[in-house]
Amino acid sequence: MGGWPASSSRVSQALLLAGCLLAAVLLFKYLSTGISYAPPSVFSQPQKGVTHVLVTGGAGFIGSHATLRLLSDGHRVTIVDNLSRGNLGAVRVLQRLAPAARLQFVEADLGDLPAVERLFARNHFDAVMHFAAVAFVGESVEQPLQYYHNITANTLTLLEAVQRHGVKRIIYSSTCATYGEPDTMPITEDTPQRPINPYGLSKKMAEDMIRDFSKANPDIAFAILRYFNVIGSDPEGRLGEWPRPALRHYGRISGACFDAAMGHIPGLKVMGTNYPTRDGTCIRDYIHVTDLVDAHVAVLPQLQPGVIRTFNVGTGKGYSVREFVDACLKVTGKPIKVVEQAERRPGDYAEVFSDPSKIQRELGWQARFTDLEENLRMAWAWRKEHPSGY
Ligand SMILES: NC(=O)c1ccc[n+]([C@@H]2O[C@H](COP(=O)([O-])OP(=O)(O)OC[C@H]3O[C@@H](n4cnc5c(N)ncnc54)[C@H](O)[C@@H]3O)[C@@H](O)[C@H]2O)c1
After folding, report:
1. Name one Pfam family in it (predicted).
2. Looking at ligand 1, which atom is closest to the CA of residue 174?
């Protein structure tokens, strides 16, 4: 009878045993460390015809609306947000709407250097839209260091990562607060930047850093968009503005109006009635979030290496606080108690509205949502549908 010699059978038994042991060790390692042998993620590879945009602060008001638009335009988006002020609920809405493999969410703080390095090392970004920031004038006066850290220092960290990882297109969210209180209105991009509060100054410092960085890195293309006061919400009602209730006292005027209408706060306080304006209250230029997002989408393909395209994004028309409050009363239809106090809010300025002619001329962008009442109606519709936020 033929057969394996005894010694050869012992060898094959030993080999089988070794194979089983190796498989057991690998299985154990896989289960205990979560190492996956999946192919590289689509987010780590460039793809022809698809722009992968890193949206910092994408869980926040403007960043979430921008993400929605980028996704519907066929782009790929990675949101990075520490959720300090944004809403996971907004990210969930976006995840439900996003086509497969088009959106990922990374919870991380831009001040966390190793986390930022991991983010850039694991992904291939074609562009960055840097929205993430703390953004309340009053808070910046009380806690200036938080603002220099969160806005200026974190922009530095981001630029270092951009340089290390060869990202070539950056759009920076700046603000009309960088102009301070100009001598003449309307504000053009050439109006001298003389910020009068730490929020505006920390943004201007980030802009200055970008200007120097751009000179030294002429292969990178930048846009700096200086937003005026952003209001409204997605016209289709999918997203809205939901700032942290704990931050309400710093709040922006539309949020305060809706909070008062819903009884979360006793009423509306108009702070400052002796400004040198047509009715003594501050004048601001209110830009709809959809128009603002359009400006980002318009500038993205127009970016040029070595150039910083700088634009004001506003409507060109100013409304006083009293006019805003009247519109709010009309839209909500609620008997909101309005208290006027002569004393001004620290760090505030009298009158600010934009001259948007440069962005109209160079990008063909124009604000489409210019009816204040209509814009407030959209935002109020979302708030009524979401009385407790996302
Ligand atoms: N809303 C306005 O009227 C207005 C006007 C001018 C400029 N801006 C600028 O637009 C940008 C977006 O503002 P918004 O109104 O959407 O504010 P927002 O608070 O709704 O969103 C900011 C987002 O950034 C995130 N964030 C903050 N610090 C972070 C950090 N260290 N790491 C990671 N994520 C962080 C927050 O969690 C939040 O989701 C800001 O840069 C702001 O300065 C806003």
Report:
1. GDP_Man_Dehyd
2. 7
Q: Could you tell me the fold of the domain covering 42-385?
A: Rossmann fold (3.40.50)
Question: How many angstroms does the Cα of residue 9 sit away from the middle of ligand 1?
Answer: 70
- Cα(304) to centroid of ligand 1, in Å? 25
The residues annotated as belonging to the active site are 199
Q: How many residues does the structure list for the chain?
A: 390
Q: Give the HSE-up count for residue 138: Cα atoms under 13 Å, Cβ half-sphere.
A: 11
The Cα 311–Cα 333 span in angstroms is 36
User: 54 has which bridge partners?
Assistant: 78, 128
Regarding the beta carbon of 224 and ligand 1, being less than 6 Å apart is answered no
Q: Establish whether residue 129 lines the binding site of ligand 1, counting it when its CB lies within 6 angstroms of any ligand atom.
A: no
**Residue-wise pLDDT tens for the chain (390 aa)?**
334 445 556 656 766 666 656 666 555 544 444 444 566 799 999 999 999 999 999 999 999 999 999 999 999 999 999 999 999 999 999 999 999 899 999 999 999 999 999 999 999 999 999 999 999 998 999 999 999 999 999 999 999 999 999 999 999 999 999 999 898 999 999 999 999 999 999 999 999 999 999 999 999 999 999 999 999 999 999 999 998 888 888 878 889 999 999 999 999 989 899 999 999 999 999 999 999 999 999 999 999 999 999 999 999 999 999 999 999 999 999 989 999 988 887 767 889 999 999 999 999 999 999 999 999 999 999 999 999 999
Q: How many CA atoms lie within 13 A of 247 on its CB side?
A: 18
Ligand 1 centre and the CA of 135: distance in Å? 6
Query: In whole angstroms, how far apart are CA 183 and each of 22, 192, 350?
Result: 76, 9, 11
Instruction: Note the pTM of the prediction, 2 decimals.
Output: 0.90
- With a 6 Å cutoff on the Cβ, whether 111 touches ligand 1 is yes
